[in-house]
Amino acid sequence: MVRSAEERSTPLPDSDRILTPGATEFLAGLHSAFGARRDELLAKRSERRAEAARTGRLDFLPGTAEVRSADWRVAPAPADLTDRRVEITGPTERKMAINALNSGARVWLADLEDANTPHWDNVVGGQVNLYDAVRETIELTTPEGKRYKLKPGRHATIVMRPRGWHLDERHLEFDGRPAVGALVDFGLYFFHNAKELLERGSGPYFYLPKMESHLEARLWNDVFTHAQRELGVPHGTIRATVLIETIPAAFEMEEILYELREHASGLNAGRWDYLFSVIKYFRDAGEDFVLPDRNSVTMTAPFMRSYTELLVRTCHKRGAFAMGGMAAFIPNRRDQDVTAKALDKVRDDKNREAGDGFDGSWVAHPDLVPVCQEVFDGVLGDKPNQLDKTRDEVSVTADDLLNVSATPGSATDAGLRAAVDVGVRYIASWLGGNGAAAIHNLMEDAATAEISRAQVWQWVRNGVVLDTGATVTAELVREVLAEVRKELDGLAHLDAAAELFDQVALADDFVDFLTLPAYAKID
Ligand SMILES: CC(=O)SCCNC(=O)CCNC(=O)[C@H](O)C(C)(C)COP(=O)(O)OP(=O)(O)OC[C@H]1O[C@@H](n2cnc3c(N)ncnc32)[C@H](O)[C@@H]1OP(=O)(O)O
Ligand SMILES: O=CC(=O)O
Ligand SMILES: [Mg+2]
C-alpha cells in the first residue's frame, strides 16, 4: 500500500510526470523485494562496528579469500563510459544541471547524495531535471531573464548518485513504513529513463555511496537484476561505480567488485567520507586513531596513500576504472588569488592521481574542468584510460590501511574553531535546502561536515590537548559554539543548526550520520 506526499501536502509542480502510477508500482515492487534485506544489512553494520571498537582492528575477510585469488574481470565498459578523465559533480538543481552537462567534463555525477538536501522538492525536482536532461530538453529562464539551455554537440554522460542505504524517504510509504531513500532515487531514475538512455546510445549509470560491505553490494546487484527484468531491459545494461568511502569497505574492494561484476564500472576514492568513516569507526579506540586538524590530513598521509594505492591496484587487476576524488578548493570568479590557489591545489592533486594510475577524477566546479583535463590528457595521450597500468608492485596490508597514527599534523585551537564554524554554517545551509556550499573558499558538503563534527566528538572523547595547552572538553566546545553563534547572527536556520551541531558533536551516543537527525527537522 502506497501513500504519497501528494495526499499530505500541496503537489509540487511537474511531480505528476515523476510520481506516475507505474513508477509508484515499480517502487512498491522494489520495496517488497528488498526493504527487509536493507534493514538487516543496516543492523549488521552496527555489529561489525562494535566488534572493531572492541578489538581496535579490521581485517581482510578470511571467508572470501577465494574471490581475491580467483581470476575474474568486470564487464567491459560501454562506449560512453570508456573515457572518464574528467567528471564534474553537483546537485541536480536545474541551472547547475545544465551547466554541468555543458561543462566539457566527460561525466556529470548528478548528485542526490552528499551535495543534496533531501527536501521533497529537491528529491522530486531533481528527478524532473534528470528526466529533461536525459531527453536533452532541459532549459531554464531565471527570474532575471538569463536563459540556459544545452549547447549543441556532446554533453557529459550522466551518472546518477542515489542516497546511501541508511536514509529513509518519509514522503512515500510502503506497507506502513517510510520508503528507502536509495530505492526511491534509483527506482524513479531507472523507471523513467533506462529505455530512453539506451535508445540514445547511453545507459542507466550509477554511483553507489557509503557502502560498508560486499553484502550491501550484493543487495544492489540484486536490485539491478530485478529492475532490469521488471522493465524488460537487458541484464547487464546498468553500470555502477562504487565509492570506497568507508573503512570497512576498503577491506572488501575485490569482493564488492565481484558481487557487482556484471554491472560494475569501477571504484571511486571518496576521500571525505572515508576520513569521516575512519574517525567514526575508531572514535573511541584511543589516541592511535586521533586525527589532527582536518586541513592537515592530506592524501599523502600514509593511511590515505595506502587506501588509494590499493584502490588503483584492485581496479586495474579486475578491468575496472579507478576514479579519483574531490580536491575541496573552489575557484572564485571575483577573486583571482583564490582562483589561482585553487587551480594550483587541484593541479597538484590531479597530478598525483594521474601518476598513480587513476583513470580520471572529480571536480566540483566548471572552472576546474580544464585543469583536470590537461593533467589527464598529459598522462593518457591517445588512450581513453590507463587500465593497462596494473600497478602489480603495490602491496597494502591491513596495518597500512589502519596506520592512522603516522599522520603528520597537530590539533589546534584554530582547527577546533574551524570545525565548529564550518559544521554550523553547513548544517544551516543543508536545513535551508542547499546541500553543497562554498565556505571560506572550500567546497563543503555532507561528507566534509561529517568530518568536522566527528572530529570534535573524537577530540572530546580522547581529551585531546590543543596547541594552546587547553584540553578539548564539551564545555570548551560549547564556549566556541556560543562565539560562532554570535559571529553568525542573522544566518538563516542558525538556532536549529547550532542545536544539531551540539547533538552530533557532543552527545554521548555518537549519531551515525548527521543527516539522520537533520532530516527530522526539515519539511
Ligand atoms: C565529498 C563529495 O561527495 S564531493 C561531491 C559532492 N559535492 C558537490 O558536488 C559540490 C559541487 N559544487 C558545488 O555545488 C558548487 O561548486 C559550490 C556550491 C561549491 C559553489 O557554487 P557557487 O557558489 O554557485 O559557485 P560560483 O558562484 O563560482 O559558480 C559560478 C557558476 O558555475 C556554476 N557551478 C558551480 N559549481 C557547479 C557544479 N558543480 N556543477 C554545475 N555548475 C556549477 C554555478 O551554477 C554558476 O553558474 P552561473 O554563472 O550560470 O550562475
Ligand atoms: O563522496 C565523496 C566523498 O569524498 O565523500
Ligand atoms: Mg561521500
UniProtKB/TrEMBL annotation:
Keywords: Glyoxylate bypass, Transferase, Tricarboxylic acid cycle
Domain Malate synthase TIM barrel: from-to ranges: 157-403
Superkingdom of this protein's organism: Bacteria
Active site: 161 (proton acceptor), 445 (proton donor)
CDD domains xrefs: malate_synt_A
Name of this chain's protein: Malate synthase
GO molecular function: malate synthase activity
Record field: catalytic activity: glyoxylate + acetyl-CoA + H2O = (S)-malate + CoA + H(+)
InterPro entries: Malate_synth_C_sf (IPR044856), Malate_synth_sf (IPR011076), Malate_synthA (IPR006252), Malate_synthase_CS (IPR019830), Malate_synthase_TIM (IPR001465), MS_C (IPR048355), MS_N (IPR048356), MS_N_TIM-barrel_dom (IPR046363)
Zinc listed as a keyword: no
Family in the record: Belongs to the malate synthase family.
PANTHER family: MALATE SYNTHASE, MALATE SYNTHASE 1-RELATED
Annotated Malate synthase N-terminal domain residues: 15-65
Domain Malate synthase C-terminal: 411-522
Gene3D superfamilies: Malate synthase, domain 3, Malate synthase, domain III
GO cellular component terms attached to this protein's record: cytoplasm
Pathway(s) served: Carbohydrate metabolism; glyoxylate cycle; (S)-malate from isocitrate: step 2/2
A Pfam family the protein falls into: MS_N
Record keyword Acyltransferase present: no
